[in-house]
């Protein structure tokens, strides 16, 4: 486990592809439990250790995740997220190259629970939720491009479905139109950074997560 930031109230880690943030039906150990064990051993804590989940990343996605070490910090971080007080920035390697170097995408997403997939539409649909993001082209190769993405809304599979809708599926994302999978079974979407005012100390916190150890990531992010 790669710890990026830790104080008395919060612990921020760099999630690897394939890890789950919170327990699910697979029964695999989630990061929340790994962190509890880490804290128990590091500080020789007796009894139960608290670790609160403030937000989630999909299993095939890597990058920065914030956990709370106290109940008070969890409540305050939950409020920060609800009030859009946390700025999250993503990097994505997409198949192809956008027509414009930067842009703003607005769609209406309809979630299909059975398929665990969201479908993006240009116009309002019954049950659709408005989804908005902005993107900026950072680098481009022959087949793949690196985009910086900022979310204005937080919807199910938002980045994946919106980029797919404009013909730029994320590398490895078979569910949303990529032609082949990644060797690690993940997708090339990385929660690159998180920024917020600390809910207890009130200092500005900005944490950047190193990208996965992968030749294409290394090539496209060199010099960025």
UniProtKB/TrEMBL annotation:
One of its GO terms (biological process) is RNA processing. GO terms for molecular function: catalytic activity, acting on RNA; pseudouridine synthase activity; RNA binding. CDD domains: PseudoU_synth_RluA_like (cd02869). Keywords: Isomerase. Residues 9-165 form the Pseudouridine synthase RsuA/RluA-like domain. The keyword Isomerase applies. Belongs to the pseudouridine synthase RluA family. This is RNA pseudouridine synthase. It comes from Candidatus Aphodosoma intestinipullorum.
């Amino acid at each position: 486990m790669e710890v990026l930031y830790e104080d008395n109230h919060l612990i921020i880690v760099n999630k690897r592809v394939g890890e789950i943030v919170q327990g699910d039906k697979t029964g695999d150990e989630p990061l929340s439990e790994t962190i509890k064990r880490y804290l128990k051993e590091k500080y020789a804590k007796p009894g139960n250790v608290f670790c609160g989940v403030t937000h989630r990343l999909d299993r095939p996605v890597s990058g920065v995740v914030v956990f709370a070490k106290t109940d008070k910090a969890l409540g305050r971080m939950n409020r920060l997220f609800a009030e859009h007080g946390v700025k999250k920035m993503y990097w994505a390697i997409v198949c192809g190259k956008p027509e414009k170097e930067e842009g703003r995408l607005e769609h209406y997403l309809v979630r299909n629970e059975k398929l665990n997939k969201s479908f993006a539409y240009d116009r309002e649909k019954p049950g659709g939720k408005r989804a908005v993001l902005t993107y900026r082209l950072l680098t481009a190769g022959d087949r793949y491009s690196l985009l910086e993405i900022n979310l204005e809304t937080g919807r199910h599979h938002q980045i994946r479905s919106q980029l797919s809708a404009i013909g730029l599926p994320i590398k490895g994302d078979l569910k949303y139109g990529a032609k082949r999978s990644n060797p690690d079974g993940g997708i090339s979407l990385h929660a690159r950074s998180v920024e917020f005012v600390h809910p207890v100390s009130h200092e500005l916190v900005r944490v950047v997560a190193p990208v996965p150890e992968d030749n294409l990531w290394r090539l496209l992010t060199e010099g960025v």
